[in-house]
Structure formats: C-alpha cells, structure tokens
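Researcher: Go.
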Amino acid sequence: MNTKSRTTALALSALALSLSGAAAQASTTQTEPSMEQCYGIALAGENDCAAGPGTSCAGTATTDYQGNAWTYVPEGTCESIQTPYGHGSLTPVERP
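Model: Structure:
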C-alpha cells in the first residue's frame, strides 16, 4: 500500500469513528426522560431552585420538604412522590 492509500484509509477510518460516536451520542440524548419541577420534595440544601424570598436558588432550601422549593424529577412522577407532609406538587404548596 502506498503512502497516499494509507493516508486515505486513515482519514476514512477517523471519519467513520467520529460518525459512529456522534450517532451513539444522539441515541443517548433521545432516551433521556423529560423532566419537570416538583415542589415540596427536596431535602434542606438539595433543591434545584426556587426556595422563597431571600434565597439565591439551587441548594438554598432551609428545611426538608419546603413547599416553595422544587427539584427536577422525571415527568409524570411528581405527584406520586410521598413525603411526611403529603405528595409532591407541580405548584408551590403550604408546608409546616
């Protein structure tokens, strides 16, 4: 095999590898579930965002199951999550 043929074969191999990697990434992305915000289920300091006045956002919930703090969960599962104060909610909830 001459140098030009080797270079061409190497380039085609690199292209094939990059295309297969891109295809694998695309198929992984498509299988990820849709996520939704679920209020009242986060533990203190583990919320994704929204934790009431005076908070900056993620990780600022001051109590477990704080009703105005949310966490991302797979779509369709929020209201089935049970806490000591009731189920998760798609909107902020009153909690003791």
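Model: Residues 49 and 58 are 4 Å apart (CA to CA).
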